[in-house]
Amino acid sequence: EVQLVESGGGLVQTGGSLRLSCAISGLNFDDYGIGWIRQAPGKKREAVSYVSFSDDHTWYIDSVRGRFTISSDNAKNTVYLQMNALKPEDTATYYCAALEEGLSTWDSVSRYKYWGQGTQVTVSS
After folding, report:
1. pLDDT digits (tens, 9 = 90+) for 44-86
2. Which of 60, 67, 82, 124 is most buried, judging by how many CB atoms fall within 10 Å of its CB?
3. Helices and strands, counts by H and E, the chain
């Protein structure tokens, strides 16, 4: 059974930082990469970052590049999203999700197979 559990969300002021964690179990990391996907009220889900374990590559959407950093601790089966210089437009529910590599590009949200429950990030102005 594959499980992904997010944590670390909260309320922060503009310019502040949060670190999200995704605890993963039951997943073969040779076959799957992990993405962070957010959904703001009234908007579609948007992939913001991704890490591929097969080649240790990372990807970022333009709006977060330079502010967000994805990383992993393989010994703990945990993927992190460090979010700095937060803006009100970053407010959303953030999900971690697993994508089977080779089937789609990282920003194809509908192709992610396993999802966590989400953690809320709110950035106040």
Report:
1. 999 999 999 887 899 999 999 999 999 998 777 999 999 999 9
2. 60
3. 0, 11
Q: What is the dihedral of CA 84, 4, 9, 95, to 10 degrees?
A: 70
Query: What SS3 state is found at 24?
Result: strand
Token output for 106: 């990282």
The two beta strands, 119-124 and 10-13, are: parallel
Rounded to an integer, what distance in angstroms lies between the CA atom of residue 38 and that of residue 57?
Answer: 20
* 81-123 pLDDT tens trace: 999 999 999 999 999 999 998 877 899 999 999 999 999 999 9
Neighbours of 16 (CB within 10 A): 14
Chain centroid offset of residue 105 CA? 15
65 DSSP 8-state letter? B
Structure token digits, residue 8: 């670390």
